[in-house]
Amino acid sequence: MRLGRLRQRDRWIQGLVLLPLFFFLPQSLQPAPPGIPVALQWKVMVSERNQAWHRLAGSFVAPIRLASHKTGLSPALLAAVVYVESRGRTGAVSAAGAIGPMQLMPATALAVLHVNPWQVQQNILGGAQFLQSLLKLFHGNLTLALEAYNAGPTRVASGEPPPPSAVTYAKTVETFLRRAEARTNSSPQKRSLHQL
After folding, report:
1. Active site residues
2. How far apart are CA 113 and CA 165, in angstroms?
């Protein structure tokens, strides 16, 4: 009887000690997307603390993690695209009128992707879905998919050379992606949501 009370008291004390930590966790360490068992969420948060893609994602770690979970694309890839597209600025608007972290054209976002490009989570999810469709279109060729993301799929699919800006864009995203993956793989804790 006394042993049971001691164990209950110990659990209560551990809870009190850990509870304040949750109020000070940055957004990048907030709980995992819905569907991930609660017991694994803390394990995921701790193991992801060393993920290099978090640096690229900035304040968009949670939306990128959710978009990755829904599309199956690497969070490092999505973070690299967000970083190159908008440098992590929510209200980024290009000269061509593309908006948000993934720089979606409003007409494409609303009519084709069926997302609200002004809402961060939907912008990132829409961009991830678009990139996923481009990867399917180009049979998994990441370079072509990234060039099409930048210059438009019709131009790249037609076989004509992509503009130099699209070539540079694809190389830049791939460089950031390789760096993030290399840093993550060199980390002692390299498990992701998909590996749990």
Report:
1. 85
2. 24
